[in-house]
Design brief:
Elements: H1 2-8, H2 10-17, H3 20-23, H4 45-48, H5 52-64, H6 68-81, H7 86-97, H8 111-114, H9 118-136, E1 144-145, E2 148-150, E3 157-162, E4 167-174, E5 177-185, E6 188-189, E7 206-209, E8 227-229, H10 235-239, E9 248-250, E10 262-264, E11 268-269, H11 272-281, E12 288-292, E13 297-298, H12 300-323, H13 326-330, E14 338-339, E15 342-343, H14 344-358, E16 363-374, E17 378-388, E18 395-404, E19 407-415
Length: 417
């Protein structure tokens, strides 16, 4: 099966064989006995969610080690548990065929049997390659995406999507900092990334937040186990003239375990077990979702040091607002500032009234969250609770700052509902 190994990308497989135990979650190791027939059985989703891929990788590793009988036994159990996992079915079929004849390529279906399935077969080959690419190119231990400069305790979780690896990374915000707790294969837009217009079948890039959790009973079966809408277009998208809506994290329809890497109308799509795990975990409104063409990973200390110059600017804004000087404060706002449709001139009276009520008392920024986005410009998405000295409660606000040359300017400020 050497030819088969090369098609599957066995430079990856060989690398995996030396680190298999560190890569595959222990729960992924099936302990059930081999079955003579492949029949669906009820799966405990709370245990098996997120592990189908890990079990498939186990099969790959066994093939790489020429342990085809063990690989077939595990593949048999995998397709029993997840009968709609087409990629697993493909590998299972190849392992069965290998008992009768040499296998020349992944999905080695005789041409006369292919008929109209060649497109699907190529999609499955692409899916296999991208899953392995993500497994080989693991984030360095102890690192986080460069966008997460600082998260407040209110951000209990965070999500980062790497489109180049078709991967979603789920983080838990623990007292010691962000910790990667799981990662999942995902599909993005048919036309790729960088959404600009309604109907362009592209997935947007940027910093977003989960806005709600849609009950699967209210959705078409196409969306699978549920949906978590994102706030696309965000403030930066709108400023840049981007259009469209309805960008969700959602599941797959019945009969389909996963989709090809490029297969959606712009949403980020996961298998239903993976989506269910995320839905049970994250919170709406406070969970940031970064979607990037390719994530850059930094140590938390390096990430924080990258944000230090901006934090100095934010502290200067805080002092200006505490000073009671409207002119000094307005120097931090961009001329094209917009707050929910109001220009800077239209919004200034509300700012003046707010400062008059504070009567020059200092303000404190609580639960500060800093998220950085860099493409053709550098943007900061800042969320904080603004509390005036002498009061117990304040207002949660979100600002968008844009770097203009050497200066940072606020181009949006609003209350987070």
């Amino acid at each position: 099966m050497k030819r088969y190994f090369s098609v599957l990308g066995f430079s990856v497989f060989v690398a995996l064989t030396s680190t298999a135990q560190a890569t595959i979650p222990k729960k992924a190791v099936s302990t059930s006995s081999p079955a003579s027939a492949v029949t669906p059985k009820k799966v405990d989703r709370t245990v098996d969610a997120g592990l189908a891929e890990a079990r498939l990788i186990e099969v790959y590793i066994l093939i790489a080690r020429a342990k085809n009988q063990e690989a077939l036994a595990k593949a048999t159990r995998l397709v029993q548990d997840f009968p709609h996992f087409q990629l697993a079915q493909l590998v299972y079929g190849d392992l069965l065929s290998a008992r009768m004849r040499p296998i020349q390529r992944m999905g080695d279906v005789p041409d006369h049997l292919l008929k109209d399935s060649s497109v699907l077969l190529n999609h499955l080959r692409d899916e296999s390659q991208i899953r392995l690419k993500a497994l080989r190119e693991r984030p360095p231990p102890g690192t986080i995406p460069s966008q997460f400069l600082a998260l407040s305790p209110r951000n209990k979780h965070a999500i980062a999507v790497d489109a180049s690896r078709s991967r979603l990374y789920l983080f838990e915000n623990r007292p010691q900092g962000l910790t990667l707790v799981a990662d999942y294969y995902i599909s993005v837009g048919k036309a790729g990334i960088e959404k600009y217009a309604e109907g362009d079948a592209r997935t947007p890039l940027g910093v977003y937040f989960i806005t709600s959790n849609l009950d699967p009973k209210s959705l078409k079966t196409f969306y699978g186990s549920g949906a978590l809408p994102l706030n696309y277009p965000n403030v930066l998208d709108t400023m840049r003239g981007k259009t469209g809506s309805g960008i969700w994290l959602h599941g797959t329809p019945p009969g389909q375990f996963s989709r090809a890497p490029l297969a959606t109308d712009g949403c980020v799509v996961l298998s239903n077990p993976d989506l269910e795990q995320i839905v049970r975990t994250v919170e709406i409104r406070t969970t940031p979702v970064v979607i990037s063409q390719r994530l850059q990973w930094l140590t938390p200390d390096n990430a924080r040091s990258h944000g230090k110059p901006f934090e100095d600017v934010l502290s200067a804004w805080q002092r200006a607002k505490s000073s009671g000087s409207l002119d000094k404060l307005l120097s931090f706002y961009a001329q094209d500032f917009n707050s929910n449709g109001k220009t800077l001139r239209e919004w200034t009276p509300a700012l003046r009234s707010e400062m008059e009520k504070a009567r020059g008392r200092a303000i404190e920024l609580k639960d500060l969250s800093l998220l950085r986005w860099t493409d053709t410009a550098e943007t900061m998405v800042v969320t904080f609770g603004e509390v005036t000295d002498g009061t117990r409660f304040g207002t949660t606000k979100r600002q968008y700052w844009l770097r203009q040359g050497k200066q940072w300017k606020i181009f949006y400020e609003g209350v987070v509902g």
